[in-house]
Amino acid sequence: MSRLDRTRKVRCERAAGSCREAVIAVCLSVALGVAACGGGGGGGSTATSPAPAPTPAPPPATSYVVTAVSDSGATVTPTSATVTSGLSTQLQVQPLAGYSVATASGCGGSLSGTTYTTGPITANCTVTITTSAVPPPTPTYTVGGTVSGLTGTLVLQNNGGDNRAITGNGAFTFATPLVSGSSYNVSVRTQPANQTCTVANGSGTSSGNVSNVIVSCVANPPPTVTLTANPTSITAGQSAQLSWSSTAAASCEASGGWSGSRPNSGTEASGALSATTSFTLTCSNAAGSSGATATVTVTPTVPAEVATAVIQAFKDRHDLIVQYPPIVQTSCPAPRPAWTSTVYLDQTVTRVYVYSDGTIDSVARQVQRPAGVFRTVVVATNHPTTNIADVLDNLWKVAQQQINEDHAAYAQQLLLSAPIVAFENTNILAEVEEVPDPRSRSDVVAFLANRGISPEDFDLIMSLDLDAANPAGGFASYGGDFAYLGYYFLRSDTKVNLELTQLNGLARALYHHEVGHIWGWEHDWTGCAQSPPFITAPALFGWTDTDYDGVPEILDSTPYGR
Q: CA torsion 435→436→439→440, rounded to 10°?
């Protein structure tokens, strides 16, 4: 093959579309020994090369249509695209509000986010999008409320978690909202120092934002203390057992008949006592202190001749056989009788005095027995000189309750299941013009009748006549049912606002002193050995066990060893 032939062949190979025909021509020329594609001239002269044939245009590329269809829950853009064979394309899929893409398929592609990318396109194809409705989100609600009275740091929790530390008063909200219809339960996880916080409206089911949880904080009260002595009355040289307990106490200190620190609860023997002794226990915490006192009444050893004289007096003067009468020394100060003894039988109290000179005096009276529940009505006259109208239904009731607590504490000392004495109180306010004379039982009874109240419904009728401009004492009759108490403090020309301390004193005067007269008590019974809060030694009211059968004499079916 000549150089010219080889050149022609190369050119033909480079020409798109007509290369095959050129190669064939070249090959034919070579086979025939022709020196040129355009024919030969005569005479053996050399022929010139013709111009190369034009390169034909390439055939057009093949393309296909990608179609996108979707249900009503989404839009796809574009909905149709022409794609060159072998290439891929992308479609944007946008779900409408309330819908999500359920399936996306076709054209060998896949969905990522909101972009659908096809595979290489080799034929017309369709991308199909289906959607599903998305349920609306379940609403959530916050839980909170208000805090009041807080002085420290409080930690609240909801449903046992979601702790919320609070350091000030006002509104609060837990950090974690609750799904509608779920329950909430707000509680105190950590109390503030020296305070107790309580939760109101703390639980329920959320159907909206909760803002009515109320947290109230108050200062912790001082400790509570109880102290009892058993027995409460002994003879000189004997001892009593002291028992005590307390709540919320950080420390307890003894004083009076004993001293030094004590555990928060315990028992201890008093040791031999020669005189009436009061034992006090004071317990403290950060909020303050509280105390309790137990008094052991020590009766001097009764001389044999006095005991004989008393027993004989009951027998000779009142035809009573009494083996174990209570005998209390009452000769301080003179001229009181040296010794006093009392015996309650049915509705009669018989009293015997033995004086230091050997003289004996005795009397028997019909009285109300100092035992049981006393239905009591108190008519308080509304004097403008005191605030009795403001305190009758609150502080005065507190003072009345203290009287019942006095009797309950004494019963506890005796290990009784119930108090020997209790008062059921009804308080009624009367205007000055409604009770002409508060000292008069008949005027007080007439007032009750006008109010539709029967005096027969009560065991005791009391008149509380607190006129600060006209101070007065009190009185009651032996064995009666009426007791009067006036304003026994200093006279005042201005209105007096009675406080609990004064009301407590008034209640003691009325319920311990004046009612004591109704039970037969005489001032000469008071004795050397005081027995607060009572007006006299409990033994003289029959409240002790003098015959050693385990039952106080006033409750005993065989009292005083009879």
A: -90
Q: Which residue from 261, 194, 199 is spatially nearest to 223, judged by alpha carbons?
A: 194
Kindly tell me if the per-residue pLDDT of 33 is higher than 50: no
Cis preceding-peptide flag for 58 (omega within 30 of 0): no
CA distance 429 to 466: 12
Q: Find out whether 47 and 38 touch, Cβ atoms under 8 Å.
A: yes
User: Cα separation of 397 and 503, whole Å?
Assistant: 9
- Residue 14, judged by CB atoms within 10 A of its CB (0-12, 13-18, 19+), counts as exposed
In the numeric block, which tokens belong to residue 78? Answer: 């574009």
**In the chain, how many domains are there?**
6
- Short-list 350, 365, 352, CA closest to 313: 352
How many Cβ atoms are within 10 Å of 402's Cβ, its own excluded? 16
Three-state DSSP at 277 gives strand
Is 479 a domain residue? yes
pLDDT band, very low/low/confident/very high, at 48 (cuts 50, 70, 90): low
Of 553, 557, 513, 555, give the one whose Cα is nearest residue 534. 513
Measuring CA to CA, which residue among 549, 511, 516, 536 is closest to residue 370?
516
Asked whether residue 384 falls in the same domain as residue 474, the answer is: yes
Q: Of 269, 299, 329, which closes a domain?
A: 299
> Going by DSSP bridges, is the β-strand pair 125-133/170-173 parallel, antiparallel, or unpaired?
unpaired
Residue range of the domain that includes 92: 63-133
**Residue-wise pLDDT tens digits, 171-189:** 999 999 999 999 999 999 9
Tokens of 492: 């005042």
- 3-class SS of residue 376: strand
Residue 433 has pLDDT above 80, yes or no: yes
Residue pair 552/543 in contact by the 8 Å Cβ criterion? yes
Helix (H, G, I), strand (E, B) or coil at 39: coil
Average pLDDT over residues 215-220: 92
Residues 6+ apart with CB under 8 A from 1: 9, 30
Mean pLDDT, the chain, rounded, equals 88
Helix (H) or strand (E) holding 305: helix 304-318
Query: Among all chains, which residue has been given the structure tokens 């009391």?
Result: 462
The Cα-based distances of 95 to 67, 70, 80 in angstroms read 18, 10, 18
Asked whether 472 and 438 are in contact (CB, 8 A), the reply is no
Q: Which domain CATH number covers 441?
A: 3.40.390
DSSP state of 22: H
3-state SS, residue 443: helix
Q: Is there a cis peptide before residue 78, judged by omega within 30 degrees of 0?
A: yes
Task: Return the number of other C-beta atoms located less than 10 Å from residue 47's C-beta.
Answer: 14
Largest CA distance in the chain: 198
